[in-house]
Write a structure and sequence with these properties.
Helix content: 25-40%
CATH class of the largest domain: Alpha Beta
Largest sheet: 5 strands, parallel
CATH topology of the largest domain: Transcription Regulator spoIIAA
Structural class: alpha/beta
Shape: globular
Length: about 450
């Protein structure tokens, strides 16, 4: 066993997407292998790592604000800045108090080597060694994670980077080209999680629908899912955000009732108007997206669908916006992530003449209308959802209540049973929705069992 360096306890703050969170777990595991202990208390940390996001101007503003605050509030701690913002603009952090090291995404796998080298040679070592070598590096080359006891739902990154050329997005600049994890590594990580008690694997990627195209021999997302399904006899799988144009027939069929694949999907749509989609560099037309949604609902009528939508892309007319707004209702999209358009540097959309940009007040208004449309669909979905049972993965036991996530991604609370434990799956009957807690209240029918070890018929 390695001796813990108690004077160099590590705390890490993660911003942005779940891919960043998975990579945070890898950084901490590698830190442990280098003799660093992990702490949740910033007061006890000798090293504070900030894993940044750069998807919008607001996410970058929050990162700058956080790092300035950490420099003021924890003067004895040394700061390491990494992630997408560090990749895009390392010079932003050059003169920030206490910042010792800035590393881009390509160098996350070597963070602790860089740290040790920098501390030994300070101040001669370059504090900003940015590269994009071996794209998707930490997920491809990092360790296999053990599953922590308190995580019933485990994130599993299977893909990184992006080869698309969306005109508004700088993710390919900061994440590099698309790269897929080898199937053997994915299966090894999945088995490690399941052996440690996980009952749900959430598959992650920057462009998850592109999984396997860069491998030799070529694989596909449906192929890796079919490899994972036999491992999930007492567990379930969930996909993260995906481009609807990547939902081919083989993948769609995996959402049939009874499959370990959860009936929940988040679609990367961005716009429901054909001209705006073309100017965004998005593939597929409005009718193609609605056709795939219709196919999904015919295969599994109970599937819950969400979407990413951008309000106020340059040149978006009232009619174009109306087409996106109408798609929320036509597609029954109830779980929305709405992004007011945020101009990103060095992207084609940033070069649109200013007269074609939508005014900020109009962008905010359109974003509010989209969010309200999503709430209306959510209300309709909630009423429908009360009609049939939910299989709830228990993630928390609190004051006699079991709290967890249903197969279609609702939070559910119910009075815990004697044999309920963290990580069990319990079939319950939903009785009402609490809009304050944003969760369902449920009851456990008398015949219900832990579905991770047994099953019952619909109750």
């Amino acid at each position: 066993m390695k001796k813990t360096n108690s004077s160099q306890r590590v705390a890490i703050l993660t911003m942005g997407c779940r891919v960043n969170q998975f990579e945070t777990d890898l950084i901490l595991k590698m830190g442990s292998d280098h003799g660093h202990d992990t702490t949740c208390s910033l007061d006890k940390a000798g090293i504070i790592i900030i894993n940044t996001c750069s998807v919008t101007r607001e996410s970058e503003r929050q990162a700058r604000k956080l790092i300035r605050k950490l420099g003021r509030d924890y003067p004895d701690a040394r700061l390491v800045v990494t992630g997408c913002y560090a990749q895009r603009s390392p010079e932003t952090f050059a003169n920030q108090p206490n910042v010792d090291l800035v590393l881009g995404n390509g160098d996350k796998k070597n963070l602790w080597n860089f740290w040790n080298r920098h501390r030994q040679n300070h101040p001669s070592t370059d504090p900003f060694p940015i590269s994009m070598e071996e794209g998707g590096s930490i997920a491809v080359h990092g360790p296999i994670l053990d599953h922590s006891e308190n995580r019933a739902r485990a994130s599993l990154q299977i893909q990184d980077g992006c080869d698309r050329k969306c005109t508004y997005c700088l993710i390919p600049q900061v994440r590099g080209p698309g790269v897929s994890m080898e199937a053997r590594r994915i299966l090894q990580q999945a088995a490690s999680y399941l052996d440690s008690g996980s009952r749900e694997l959430v598959l992650l990627g920057i462009d998850i629908g592109a999984y396997g195209r860069d491998l030799s021999p070529v694989l596909s997302l449906s192929a890796i899912l079919n490899m994972l399904i036999p491992l999930c006899q007492n567990a379930r799988l969930r996909l993260s955000s995906i481009d609807p144009m990547d939902l081919n027939d083989e993948l769609l069929e995996l959402f049939a009732p009874g499959s370990p694949l959860c009936p929940h999907l988040h679609l990367s749509i961005q716009s429901g108007d054909d001209l705006i989609r073309k100017r965004m560099g998005r593939h597929g037309q409005r009718r193609d997206i609605l056709k795939r949604i219709d196919q999904l609902r015919r295969i599994n009528p109970n599937i819950a669908l969400g979407a990413d939508l951008i309000a106020g892309f340059p040149t978006e007319s009232e009619m174009a916006f109306a087409n996106t707004l109408a798609m929320v209702q036509e597609g029954g999209l109830s779980l929305l992530h709405v992004f007011p358009y945020s101009e990103r540097p060095n992207t084609p959309a940033a070069r649109f003449p200013r007269q074609h940009h939508v005014p900020d007040p109009v962008i905010r208004q359109r974003a509010a209308l989209l969010r309200q449309a999503g709430k209306d669909q959510l209300h309709a979905r909630i009423q429908q959802r009360l009609l049939y049972p939910a299989d709830v993965l228990v993630e928390q036991l609190e004051n006699g209540y079991a709290i967890g996530t249903s197969e279609d991604y609702f939070t559910v609370r119910f009075i815990g049973q004697r044999d309920d434990s963290h990580g069990c799956i319990r079939r319950v009957r939903l009785v009402e929705y609490d809009p304050i807690k944003e969760s369902f209240e449920a009851i456990v029918p008398q015949l219900s069992t832990d579905l991770s070890t047994g099953s019952v018929d619909n109750l």
